Amino acid sequence: MSKFDQCGIFYSVFVRKLRIISEKKEGATISTQDFRVNETIRIPEVRVIDHKGENLGVISTREALQIAREAELDLVEVSPNANPPVCRVMDFGKFLYERTKKEKEARKAQTKIEIKEIRLRPKTNEHHRGFKTRDARRWLEDGMKVRVTIRFRGREISYPELALEDLKEIAQELSDIASIEQAPGIEGRVMSMLLMPNAKKIAKRKAAIESGEIQPVVIEDESDETDEDFDDEDDDEDETTDSES
Predict the structure, then answer these.
(1) Where are the domains of the chain?
(2) Cα 210 to the chain's mean position, in Å?
(3) Do 3-96 and 111-231 fold alike per CATH?
(4) How far apart are CA 168 and CA 160, in angstroms?
(5) How high is the pLDDT of residue 236?
(6) Is 154 left (phi over 0), alpha (psi -120 to 50) or beta?
(7) CATH 3.30.110.10 assigned to 111-231
(8) Homologous superfamily of the 3-96 domain (CATH)
(9) Which of 23, 26, 46, 225 shows its CA 20 to 30 Å from the CA of 209?
(10) Per-residue confidence of the chain (245 residues) as pLDDT tens digits?
């Protein structure tokens, strides 16, 4: 083995260790151990795609390594189960960085989904419910999930079908931009459902608005409206049924 080959192996192992340490510090889930790189590719022949995207066909691994060295790049096994395995000539460090970056962005996109809530009562009038539904629409169009909650007081719990009907109507009204992720259910004195934005429906609706096919929903200011009836949870325990005379 020439001194050049020995230096190449040393450099490859050294950089490999540095990358593993760096990835652990950054919390990356992609490991260099998932790939065979340069001298760790032990098979005699591989199919090679060069750094320009050209298929060089099946050549010896030694020749493939030489091509990578001349380009001052790495030989990376990208399809180990192919026959023969497929390798690409690339900057392995840059490849790992970009792949890890994409994975982090995907995780951030998942964790950024915020859940908003609209709170109603079984006796909420249509005017007030309309404002709440329009709030839900705005949040859904912004990519947030929305939990619709109805709290019962006293004898109201005896008529859950009324609240269920309210939830169904809200879901139907928002069906042009949302889907039901969690069906209506009761826990204690609360009935709720969870709506999730439907990206395809939202895009379709926006296109229809831009073309003038439909009119956008106008979000009015409801500064005078409050949720005081909903927030006063202590009344749930204090409220008693009427005595019969």
Answers:
(1) 3-96, 111-231
(2) 27
(3) no
(4) 12
(5) 42
(6) left
(7) yes
(8) Translation initiation factor 3 (IF-3), N-terminal domain (3.10.20.80)
(9) 225
(10) 544 444 444 445 444 444 444 444 444 444 556 788 999 999 999 999 999 999 999 999 999 999 999 999 999 999 998 999 999 999 999 988 998 888 888 777 666 678 999 999 987 888 888 899 999 999 999 889 999 999 999 888 888 998 999 999 999 999 999 999 999 999 999 999 999 999 999 998 888 888 777 777 665 554 444 454 455 444 444 333 343 33
Q: For residue 65, what are its two tokens? A: 């390594």
**Three-state SS for 142?**
coil
DSSP 8-state secondary structure symbol assigned to residue 29:
S
**Which pair of tokens denotes residue 156?**
């109201």
**What pLDDT was estimated at residue 75?**
94
Determine the Cα–Cα distance for residues 224 and 226; give it in Å rounded to an integer: 7
Alpha-carbon distance 171 to 194, whole Å?
Answer: 9
DSSP state of 225: -
The b/e string for 157-168 (b: 16+ C-beta within 10 A; e otherwise) is beeeeebbebbe
Q: Looking at 112-237, which runs of residues are DSSP E strands?
A: 115-120, 145-151, 178-187, 190-197
Task: Tell me 35's DSSP state.
Answer: S
End-to-end CA distance of the chain: 106
Sequence-distant (6+) residues with CB within 8 A of 33 are 20
Which tokens go with 92?
A: 């392995």
Residue type, 221: D
